Amino acid sequence: MSTDPLLAEGAQVTVLNGSGVTGAAQKQVDTLAGIGIDATAGNAPSGEYSANIIYQLNDKSPQLPKN
């Protein structure tokens, strides 16, 4: 197990593309994979989004600073 808190968390990450730009989610998944984070890509529900939205789906307090 990694001592890096980002990797040790073992988060399940899904990147959804709602930008209208084909391949945008996969590009981010590839970036995450490059630093050792397992992620999957998919399409957001219909519509275009002008901002990033991050959902934390557990009750753990964040261990990393928010940027």
Task: For the structure shown, list the relevant keywords.
67 residues; alpha+beta; two-stranded parallel ribbon; 2 strands; 22% helix; 15% strand; globular
Describe the 3D structure.
This protein is of the alpha+beta class and 67 residues long. It has a domain at 9-43. It has helices at residues 5-8, 24-34, and strands at residues 13-17, 39-43. The chain has a two-stranded parallel sheet.
Oligomer: single chain
Strand order of the biggest β-sheet: 1-2
Tally of contiguous helical segments = 2
Q: How would the global form be characterised? A: globular
Question: How are the SSEs placed, and which strands pair?
Answer:
Layout: H1 5-8, E1 13-17, H2 24-34, E2 39-43
Parallel strand pairs: 1-2
Short summary:
By secondary structure, this protein is an alpha+beta fold. It has helices at 5-8, 24-34, and strands at 13-17, 39-43.
